[in-house]
């Protein structure tokens, strides 16, 4: 069965603006981002959908409300961003010279965050949450999933082509991708940026 999906990254927060790793911290959107999301919606950037899902974190709930004000978003716990542990709330600049941060960078982002979530488990959690929500959709139904940059990369790493290319799917705040998802083959097709 094929469904149409829009994966949308939440609007910017103060932490995003300063380049910090913001995972489990429940920051609200900043004012400028709220205005930009409203403008993007008015200009037709975001597709029409029947169903909206989102991460339960405030920045995603607020983004879903701004982009799809006529829809009640369903919060999906598995769509949360990764817990960055000791790196949470800190920028690359602040972490430079920290041995654990350097090890994480040297690993290509594959090792666990000190005191945080294991990246492999994070990706599995996101993929499970995404496939479960898609399984509940009707044939040809259109759905938006308002979530986090890491969540989007985790999902498209699994179903995009080529598979396994996590960082290829980085997207700016308010951006994202549209695609068709086949729930049987669990592959995406016709992936295009919003």
From TrEMBL:
<dbReference type="GO" id="GO:0043755">
    <property type="term" value="F:alpha-ribazole phosphatase activity"/>
</dbReference>
<dbReference type="InterPro" id="IPR050275">
    <property type="entry name" value="PGM_Phosphatase"/>
</dbReference>
<dbReference type="InterPro" id="IPR013078">
    <property type="entry name" value="His_Pase_superF_clade-1"/>
</dbReference>
<dbReference type="InterPro" id="IPR029033">
    <property type="entry name" value="His_PPase_superfam"/>
</dbReference>
<keyword id="KW-0378">Hydrolase</keyword>
<protein>
    <submittedName>
        <fullName>Alpha-ribazole phosphatase</fullName>
        <ecNumber>3.1.3.73</ecNumber>
    </submittedName>
</protein>
<dbReference type="Pfam" id="PF00300">
    <property type="entry name" value="His_Phos_1"/>
</dbReference>
